[in-house]
Write a structure and sequence with these properties.
By secondary structure, the chain is mainly alpha-helical. It is 72% helix and 2% strand.
């Protein structure tokens, strides 16, 4: 609470110097201050006495200006808020007063506070105001360069970086180049400007390395490597240069050299996480055990870094070190970092340990992203395999409600699971439900047709395929499916032939349609034509059903050895095939393909 005499003070002008002097006295009793990093701003509540300055030749001249009591009061409140760690209040007050007063000192303080809080929009606006008010201030130019880079306004950022260089500053040009590359904004003009700056400031490692990064992006690896070596000679303690060199060596196909370089650097600088991380990443393809050691050391150095924990956990998981992986993924959940990935792999751990309920619980907590559909697939597959169809039904219902655009897809997933787990009738019921909600879905209708075929409902099967052909008469898949089905009815083989011909005209290289054409020709007694189409089909797709068909055609033509060889190859590819043994049984062949071929 402010002293009563200050609360009752009459409005008067107060200098900014006096304001911060008073704030400094207030702060002498403050404790637990937040540490300051010069490149990210500073928290309020740690101000030192500042005088507004301007550059006059090589000297700096102090300038003071008076503030109204309202401004003084607001800025004092901001500093007190900073002491009490109410940084949002401090920033709001400073940001507002920077706009109102157009004072460079207030704008500078607002910029530092906003950068400390990662309040990017406020930091950018304050920095722009600051540099407007003090264009010759190096810190202002550096701050606005950094914020414009983060905002992706790269041409303007580069212009301010050039100004900062002229003032003797060291702007973050490597960050600018990296952002330009990542956002695909590294145009010829930017590259040319970096080249000019490199000529103008040949001893500035930040400039040279930024240009080398740009050259690397343009695949000019040799020129980039020359610049990197130049920086290493001039600044032997600069670690960005050898780090970039390792990337360039990999680009040039010298992966082993890059690993040796990083190994030496890690031994010299064991605490440099960037070097060890690049070393560990390169080792993943070369020596997974050594990579694991490096990631373990990185996690020791930075135990709260979720990216490092996840990397180590994935290595443990992929090498089947489940007991080591599990606590790492659990740690990620505690840190609330990479939670979806942690749940996904903890689900995998539980699945390997046959803890089905736990596995499904983790898979259900995976959020939309890279592992989302895989988590749903694995979780619902576990439920289906254990007969928990009602739990699956509830899960898919929730998914359809959460993602209405993907409703059809989730119906199809559920139907396929039921079908694969020997529940065709339940699958048919679910696809009927899906069609009731998505009557225009051709995929659901086609799925219903296949289920009806599986259940022996030939009339319903043909009805759905005819409906699909009305919608799309040029659908080769549907033409082929209907034509193949009709081959079984001797009275409709002519119709089957016409349908398959239409399909083949649309997709002349499709192995499934070639197989259908070969099979209908066989059933029509045209063995030579049948063999031609079936050989062509098998050459494009080594499928056991095609092998069964070709073997039968060869057998009835008297080529018993050829038939058995085709069946043998088919069984080698699909050892659990029931189609090839069924064909042999139909032809009443007693010996196995393997035995007959080996005898010849």
């Amino acid at each position: 609470m402010l002293p009563p005499r200050l609360l009752s003070a009459k409005p008067q002008a107060t200098s900014f110097t006096l304001l911060l002097s008073l704030c400094f006295l207030l702060m002498l009793g403050a404790c637990n201050r937040v540490p300051l990093r010069e490149d990210t701003g500073e928290p309020p509540g740690q101000a030192v006495q500042r005088q507004k300055t301007k550059t006059v030749g090589s000297s700096r001249q102090a300038v003071t200006r008076a503030f109204p009591i309202d401004t003084f009061y607001t800025l004092l409140v901001a500093e007190v808020a900073g002491i009490r760690k109410h940084y949002d209040v401090a920033l709001a007050n400073y940001y507002h007063q920077a706009e109102v007063t157009k004072d460079a000192g207030v704008a500078a303080r607002a910029t530092r506070i906003a950068r400390f809080l990662n309040a990017r929009q406020a930091a950018l606006r304050s920095a722009q105001l600051w540099v407007e008010l003090e264009p010759e201030n190096t810190e202002a130019q550096l701050a606005v360069t950094a914020e414009l880079t983060l905002a992706g306004v790269l041409p303007t950022a580069l212009a301010h970086a050039e100004k900062a260089l002229a003032l003797g500053g060291k702007p973050p040009l490597q960050s600018l180049a990296s952002t330009a590359i990542a956002q695909q904004k590294l145009d010829a003009q930017t590259l040319a400007k970096l080249a000019l700056l490199a000529q103008e400031y040949p001893l500035n490692d930040e400039v040279i390395l930024a240009y080398a990064m740009a050259l690397r992006a343009g695949k000019q690896y040799g020129r980039a490597l020359t610049l990197v070596h130049q920086v290493q000679e001039q600044h032997p303690d600069q670690l960005d240069a050898p780090l970039l060199e390792s990337h360039l060596l990999v680009d040039l196909g010298k992966r082993r050299d890059a690993i040796e370089l990083l190994e030496n650097l890690v031994n010299i600088h064991p605490g440099e996480g960037r070097l060890r991380l690049q070393y560990a990443r390169l080792l993943i393809r070369e020596d997974l055990a050594l990579a694991r050691q490096q990631f373990a050391e990185l996690v020791k150095q930075r135990p709260e870094d979720g990216n490092l924990i996840l990397s180590l956990a994935l290595i443990e998981y992929e090498t089947n070190q489940i007991d080591a992986a599990k606590p790492l993924f659990t740690k990620l959940l505690e840190l609330r970092q990479h939670e979806s990935s942690a749940h996904f792999y903890l689900g995998g751990v539980a699945e390997k340990q046959q803890e089905i309920t736990t596995a499904v619980e983790h898979f259900r907590q995976v959020q939309p992203g890279n592992d989302y559909l895989e988590a749903i697939t694995r979780g619902t597959r576990l439920l289906a395999a254990t007969g928990q169809h009602m739990n699956n039904r509830q899960w898919f219902a929730e998914l359809r409600q959460e993602h209405p655009v993907q409703e059809e897809h989730f119906y199809l997933m559920e139907v396929e699971l039921l079908r694969k787990n020997g529940e065709p009738q339940l699958a048919l019921e679910r696809v009927e439900q899906g069609l009731a909600a998505n009557s225009a879905s051709s995929r659901l209708m086609y799925t219903r047709a296949l289920l009806n075929d599986q259940l022996g409902n030939a009339t319903a099967f043909e009805r759905d395929l005819r409906s699909l052909l009305k919608r799309d008469p040029q659908n080769a898949t549907v033409l082929n499916a209907l034509g193949y089905k009709l081959i079984g009815d001797p009275s409709r083989r002519g119709e089957a032939l016409q349908l398959i011909r239409q399909a083949l005209a649309l997709k002349p290289e499709d192995p499934a349609i070639l197989d259908s054409m070969g099979w209908v020709q066989y059933r029509l007694g045209n063995y030579t034509a049948a063999e031609k189409y079936l050989r062509k089909a098998l050459g494009r797709l080594p499928d056991h059903e095609i092998a069964a068909h070709l073997g039968e055609v060869l057998w009835v033509q008297g080529d018993r050895t050829g038939a058995l060889r085709v069946w043998k190859d088919g069984l080698a590819t699909h050892p659990h095939s029931d189609i090839i043994p069924a064909a042999m049984k139909r032809l009443q062949i007693q010996e196995s393909p393997q035995q007959h071929v080996s005898d010849h």
